[in-house]
Specification:
The chain is of the alpha/beta class. The protein has ten helices and nine strands. β4, α4 and β5 form a beta-alpha-beta unit. Bound molecules: guanosine-5'-diphosphate (GDP) and magnesium ion (MG). The site of guanosine-5'-diphosphate has 22 residues, from α2.
C-alpha cells in the first residue's frame, strides 16, 4: 500500500507547480511592464500615463516546468467615480484569489499615499507579500535601502527585491522567489496560451493604447474602444472593425485630426502591433462615435469582468 502511494505521489522534488500571482501596486509603478517581461510577450498595455489598465489581465508563463498565472490588476488608488471603484475592487479581488502577492512600488516616487494604502490594506488582511521596488535605474542605492526600511515597517513583506522591470535587473531573483511559493499542482492552461483575455478585448486595448499615446492631457481618459466585429477570411487574413468612443463632439474632432490624419495614425500603429501579436495580416477599420455616458454603461463593465456595483 505504501509503495502504491509513493508511486502516485506528487511530493518528491521536481514536482510540477502551478499558481496565481497577483501584481499589486499604485497606478504607473510598472506592473504591466513587469508582466510583459515575465510572460515574454506583450499581453498588457503599457503607457506612461496612469490608469491604463482597466481590467484584470492574465499573463501565463511556463518557467522551468512550472506554470505561473499572473494577474495584472488595475492600480489601487482612491476611488471616486464608478469606474474607479470597479477597478479598485477588481485589484483587491485579484489579490484575494492569488497564491502569491507581489507589491510593486516606484522607487523614484517612494512611499506615497497610494502605496501606503496598499501596505496598510495587506497588513490589515494579514496577507504577507513580496515587495518589488521597481525603476531602480532611476535612483541611488542609499535611497533604495532607506525606502525598503520604510516599506517594511508594518511587517507586510516576506522579502524585498530591487528590480528594473524595464531593463530586467533583479527580475530573475524575484521570479525564483515567486516559484518557490507556488503550490504543487497540474497546469491550469494549455502550454501555448499566453492570456485568458478574449482576442477582441485585447485588440480593443491595443487601439486604446495607441490613442493614449497620440493624444494629450485629459482626453485619453474620455476614450474607450470596442471591437465590433472580428472576421477571419479564407486566405487567413483578419478583418477587424472597432469603434473609438468619446464623450463629446469636440473630442471627436481631436481624435479624427485634420482630414482624419490622427485616427489614421492611431489605426496603423495598432494594426502593426496586432499583426505581430496575432501572427497574421490584419485589416483594421476604426470609427469614432460620441457616447456621453460610457462610464455609466453596465455592459462596459460586464465585458471586462468588472463589477458595475462595486
Ligand atoms: P502600470 O500602470 O503599473 O501597469 O505601469 P506601466 O507598466 O504601464 O509603466 C508605467 C511607466 O513606467 C511606463 O512609461 C514604463 O515604461 C515605465 N517603467 C516601468 N518599469 C520601469 C523601470 O524599471 N525603469 C524605468 N525607468 N521606467 C519603467
Ligand atoms: Mg498597467
Amino acid at each position: 500500500m505504501a509503495d502504491e502511494e509513493s508511486a502516485i505521489s506528487t511530493e518528491p522534488d521536481g514536482e510540477i507547480r502551478c499558481g496565481y500571482v497577483a501584481l499589486l501596486g499604485a497606478p504607473n509603478v510598472g506592473k504591466s511592464t513587469l508582466l510583459n517581461r515575465l510572460v515574454g510577450a506583450k499581453v498588457s498595455i503599457v503607457t506612461p500615463k496612469v490608469q491604463t489598465t482597466r481590467n484584470r489581465v492574465l499573463g501565463i508563463a511556463v518557467t522551468s516546468g512550472d506554470q505561473i498565472v499572473y494577474v495584472d490588476t488595475p492600480g489601487i488608488f482612491t476611488p471616486q467615480k464608478r469606474l474607479d471603484r470597479a477597478m479598485v475592487a477588481a485589484a483587491w479581488g485579484g489579490a484575494a484569489d492569488a497564491d502569491v502577492v507581489v507589491v510593486l512600488a516606484d522607487a523614484k516616487r517612494g512611499l506615497d499615499a497610494d502605496s501606503g494604502r496598499i501596505v496598510a490594506g495587506l497588513a490589515k488582511a494579514g496577507r504577507r507579500a513580496l515587495l518589488a521596488l521597481n525603476k531602480i535605474d532611476l535612483v541611488r542605492r542609499e535611497t533604495l535601502l532607506q525606502l525598503s526600511e520604510r516599506f517594511n515597517k508594518e511587517g507586510a513583506f516576506e522579502e524585498t527585491f530591487m528590480i528594473s522591470a524595464l531593463g530586467g535587473d533583479g527580475v530573475d531573483t524575484l521570479l525564483e522567489a515567486i516559484r518557490a511559493r507556488l503550490p504543487a499542482g497540474p497546469w491550469l492552461f494549455p502550454e501555448d496560451q499566453l492570456t485568458d483575455m478574449p482576442q477582441r478585448l485585447m485588440a480593443a486595448e491595443v487601439t486604446r493604447e495607441k490613442a493614449f499615446l497620440q493624444l494629450h492631457q485629459e482626453l485619453p481618459y474620455a476614450i474607450d474602444v470596442e471591437t465590433d466585429s472580428w472576421s477571419e477570411q479564407d486566405n487567413g487574413e483578419v478583418r477587424v472593425e472597432q469603434t473609438v468612443y468619446v464623450r463629446r463632439d469636440s473630442q471627436k474632432a481631436i481624435v479624427l485630426g485634420k482630414g482624419g490624419s490622427r485616427i489614421k495614425a492611431i489605426g496603423s500603429a495598432a494594426r502593426a502591433d496586432l499583426e505581430e501579436m496575432f501572427g497574421h495580416k490584419l485589416h483594421l477599420f476604426l470609427h469614432v462615435k460620441v457616447r456621453e455616458n460610457w462610464p455609466e454603461n453596465r455592459a462596459h463593465y460586464r465585458e471586462r469582468g468588472l463589477d458595475f456595483d462595486a
